[in-house]
């Protein structure tokens, strides 16, 4: 049985790459799909493919980075399908530079698309789901965000992208805690797949194998996780950061209070180095920053 039958999902940046793979997989599992992409022609091509396979989908090219235009996306979904149950915040851009070479526009553009783009649709839908829950209607809604290994461990040459993706991981934890009472889960995935962004950043690493071997970087490999998170089956999973590549899943172990020393009184400056040396000697080594 299709695990998303009757559910409606909005997917941003769904005209290609991971978003396209998600859209096709959701439709295959019975969902109504809103294919959002600023490239309308790309969105319409995905919609055509879904409809040719017997699925239900509409294309949308509204901007995700303002509340006003994000409302248009939600309104289109409601007009076409009556309700929205899932939002997959997938759209993104890169403006890669070494930190001191970043311009203000490089910084603002990445924050706007990634971080504010994650805020707008989820904020609008979160209010809707809250109101439905308060009115006594059952809600099984899902926010699925997109972080990155760059956001979890850092990445040389991507300080703007890393900062935005790290913020998205933290945002997800807060959404999960605040919205649970309304029947809403929030999770984030850190996908490793071949997309236009990864092909521009690391083309040799993500290249499709020519020998017929398993293509671990194919975006279709991540789609089953996203579809399951968007289904009714995932209601007991929230506030998780999940990494996915090929056939591998792992749960991110985020910032937490670690090894501690407590003097019970104010530390003197000369005592700080001693205490930190002891703590760092016992603490597990962090993962290396990507590219270092």
From TrEMBL:
- Alphabetical keyword list: Oxidoreductase
Domain Ketoreductase positions: 7-192
The record's InterPro entries line, in alphabetical order, gives: KR_dom, NAD(P)-bd_dom_sf, Peroxisomal_Beta-Oxidation, Sc_DH/Rdtase_CS, SDR_fam
* This protein's record includes keyword Oxidoreductase: yes
Q: Does the keyword Oxidoreductase apply?
A: yes
**Which PANTHER family does the entry link to?**
DEHYDROGENASES, SHORT CHAIN, SCP2 DOMAIN-CONTAINING PROTEIN
Family stated for the protein in its record: Belongs to the short-chain dehydrogenases/reductases (SDR) family.
* Record-given protein name: NAD(P)-dependent dehydrogenase, short-chain alcohol dehydrogenase family
Q: What is the scientific name of the source organism?
A: Pseudomonas psychrophila
Q: What does the record give as the organism's lineage? A: Bacteria, Pseudomonadati, Pseudomonadota, Gammaproteobacteria, Pseudomonadales
